[in-house]
Amino acid sequence: MRKLLILTIVLSLFSSCTTEFNRVYKSPDYRFKYEYAKECFANGKYTKAISLLQDVVTTLKGTESGQECLYMLSMAEYNSKDYVTASEYFKKYFSSYPRGIYAEQAKFYAGKSLYMTTPEPRLDQTDTYEAIKLFQEFLDLYPSSPMREEAQNRLFEMQEKLVKKEFYSAQLYYNLGGYFLNSLHGGNNYEACIITSQNALKDFPYTDLREDFALLIMKSKFELAQQSVEERKLERFQDAEDECYGFINEYPDSKNRALAEKYIAKCKVYTKGEAETDKD
Q1: Which long-range contacts (CB under 8 A, 24 or more apart) does 131-136 make?
Q2: Are 238 and 270 in contact (CB under 8 A)?
Q3: Taking a C-beta distance cutoff of 8 angstroms, is the pair 240, 267 a contact?
Q4: Is the dihedral of CA 171, 173, 178, 180 positive or negative?
Q5: How many angstroms separate the CA atoms of 239 and 243, rounded?
Q6: Which distant-in-sequence residues (6+ apart) come within 8 Å of 3 by Cβ?
Q7: Residue 261, exposed/middle/buried by CB under 10 A (0-12, 13-18, 19+)?
C-alpha cells in the first residue's frame, strides 16, 4: 500500500511537470519560454531546455538575450552529450558573434565537442582532423586563455591518435607483404609501408613511435630487396643496407639492433658478390 502511494505521488508530480512544460512550450510568449528554458538549464533539465531554446533562438537573434540564448543552447547540447550538434551550435555562435561575450568559450567548446566524438585510431579520423583545426584556431586567437593548457593537451592527444592510425596502416601493409598489389603506389605492400612510414615521420617528427616506424621501413626495404627482380636487386640491397646503418646510428641501444646487423650481413652477401662479379 505504501509503495502504491509513493508511485501515485511520483506519477502525479511527473504528470504535473509534463503539463506545465507543454503549457510553456505552446505559449506564444517567447520571453516566458526563454525564462523557463533558463530555469530548466540551471536545474540540469537539458532536453527540455533544448526544446524551448530551439524554439526561441531565431526570435531572440539581435536582441540583448540573443547571444546568451545561442550559447546556452550550445552548452545544453554539449551537456546532453550530443557533441556533433553542440559543435555546430558553438561554431554558429562564434560566426554570429566573433566578439561576443562567450566567443572564447564557444571557440574552445567547438573543438572540445568534436574531440569527444573522436574514435579509436583504427577508425575514420575525420572528426579528429576537424577538432585539431578548431583547437589550433582557438590557440591562435586566445594565446593567454585559461583554457589554453587543456586545448594543447587535447591537441597533442589527437595528433598522437593520428600517428597511431598511420602506424597501424603501415603495419598492415608490412604484414600483407608481397601477396597483394597496392595499386595506389604502383607496387607491392612493402613499398606502401615505406611510403606511409616516411610520410608519418615527416608529418609527426616528435612522435614516440618514431623508432617503430624506422623499424618498419628497414624491414620493408630488406624484404623488398629480396623479392625484387634481378635488375633491381643490387640497388635495393644497397638501399636496405644503408637503411640498416641509419637505424643503428639513430637507435644504437635498440633491442632491434641485432636484427639490423643481421640484415646488413645478408645485404653484403649480395652487394659484395655483385662487386666481385663486376671486377671479373
Answers
A1: 131/158, 132/158, 132/159, 132/162, 134/87, 134/91, 134/107, 134/110, 135/108, 135/111
A2: no
A3: yes
A4: positive
A5: 6
A6: none
A7: middle
The Cα–Cα gap between 229 and 126 comes to 39
Q: State residue 21's pLDDT score.
A: 83
Question: Hey, what's the cell of 65?
Answer: 538575450
Specify the amino acid at residue 73: L
Query: Cell numbers at residue 221, please?
Result: 626495404
Angle between helices 66-79 and 30-42 (to 10 degrees): 40
Per the document, the length of the chain is: 280
Low-confidence ranges of the chain (pLDDT < 50): 3-16, 182-186, 280
Own/partner contacts of 259-266, CB < 8 Å, gap of 24 or more, are: 259/219, 260/218, 263/218, 263/222, 266/222
Query: C-alpha 14: how far from its chain's center?
Result: 41
pTM of the model: 0.80
**Other residues' Cβ atoms within 10 Å of the Cβ of residue 42:** 10
Question: Residue 153: what pLDDT?
Answer: 97
Question: On the CB side of 181, how many CA atoms lie within 13 Å of its CA?
Answer: 3
Write down the pLDDT at residue 28: 78
